[in-house]
Every structure is written in structure tokens, then in C-alpha cells.
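Researcher: Structure prediction, please.
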Amino acid sequence: GLFHTKNGGESWFHCLKGVPRPWINTCYWLTFDPQKQGRIWSVWGNAHDLPRPKMFRGDFSRFQGGVALSEDNGESWSAVTVGMPENTVCTHVLLDPDSPSESRTLYVCGFGKGVFKSVDGGASWKLMNKGLGENLNAWRMERLPDGTLFLLIARGGIEGRGYIDGGVYVSRDGASSWKNVPLPVGVNAPNDLVVDPQEPKRMYLCCWPWPSEGVEKHGGVLRTEDGGVTWERVFDEDAHVYAAAVDPSNPAVVFINTFDCAAFRSEDYGASWNRLGGYNFKWGHRPVVDPHQPDKLFLTTFGGSVFYGPAK
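Model: Predicted structure follows.
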């Protein structure tokens, strides 16, 4: 489910009031309204290990999920899913900060369904899949300051057919249409995308490798300096890199967390990396820079709770 802390992580409590019970296995993401104190959108699903391959065993439509809205800092929630099927496992929610405060534009990734858009703060949703391919495992989105949207499609499975490649798509018209972003040959499992806040054309794409003849290939981290036109590998291709973070106070500093018992820090935009000491949990998820103490870092994990320590 979802947990809340009011004392910097010293203690936590469940934050589930009003969330439909079939959803509460996993809260995949939150987004906070930057202009309305206390307003939060959250996305949920009872398919818990996405986008790992084991979740594609059997009929994926058996899962449930959706979007919930809180107006009181997460003390209570209400489902806001008009226009979404009940079996929509939602894995990401993105807010357009340029939209009116009273009628926010939101985008939600529906895993296996594609992209949903709302122009009324989540009161209703519309599917926006024009230009997407057969794989609709919408996983993560990122928005550039000029409104350009990037969508990550996770590598997935099809019952009786094996696996289907993931990819990256771009939209410059508010998700009305999508175009494929070419990636280096063999890269088929994007997992996270982060943008340099000072130079938005510089982005880091975290990737999952693919086993080939006993060797893991095409994973690691790719960097673009031109908004996704070209990509350069800046971290080992056999690495299972789950997510990255850019230090907002110094964009040359980049962090990654991996499913390989290690997290890393770069001080030169990903050109070189140093492993962070004192952390070796197998299944790492996300690095999060402490907004109150920029020299500190949170590392979230799958199964090992939350680690906290020096960012160096």
C-alpha cells in the first residue's frame, strides 16, 4: 500500500482511507499539486511487481487498479476513474503544471492499456494512444518545460507468444499523437527517464538488459544531449538499472539505483561513476535526494525498506 511519515522517516503509518480495497496492494506513484496545498493524485494496482516478467504469467486482465485523489494531504482518498476500465493497473501519474489550478491536466500510464488524459483534474479520463504500437505497457512519463511528453513502454509478455519489446515515444501535442523515439539496437526495456532541470535536452534513460547466449546485454544507462535524437551509453550494459535522480542543486551529480546490490553516484553527468558505500541490498528501486538536506540521499528498495545516508 502507501505509507506516510510526518517526522522525516522515523515512523510511518498506512495511508489508505478511501482507497478501494482491491487496489491497495501497490501504490506506484504520487504527484502533488504545486499550487494547491494538500492535493495529491495517486495511482494503484494489485499487480505488484511490474514491470518484472513474472507478472505476465496468465491473463493480465485479472488485475485491478485506478487513480485516487486526496484533498487533505493523504489523510483520505476518493477514486477518480470515470472513463477507465476497472482492470486498469495504473503505474504513473503526471501533472501539467501549466494547466489551470481549477481544472488540472493529468496523464496516467495504464499498464497494458496505454495513456489516459484528464483535463478536469481527474474527474474524467480519455484514452490517448494514437501512434503507439502493439505494446501498450505504459510505465512512466516525463514532461519537458516546453510541454513535450516522453512515454516509456515497458518490455512485457504476451500469453503464449513470449516477450514483446518496450520502447520510448514522444508527443508534442499533449498526447494527441505519439511517435517512436529510436533507441540503440537491442535496447528494448526502458525503466526510468530523468531530465536535467537546467538543460532539458539532457536526459538519462535507465534500462533493463536482455539475456543473450548467457550474457546480459543492452541494459545500463543511456544519455542524450539532444532531446532523444541520439543516445550514448554511460553505464554498463549488463546492469539492471531501475531508476536515476539528478541533484537539483548541481545537475552534474546523478544517482542510480540497481537490482545488482549497488547504487552509484556520478559527478560529471554520467561520464564516470562511484559506488555508494554502506548499501548492498539486492533489489534497489529509486534514489531520492533529500529536499531538506541535499547532502543526504534516500534509496528505496523492493523488499528492503528505505535506506538513508550521505549522498557521497
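Model: The mean pLDDT is 95.
Researcher: Thanks, that helps.
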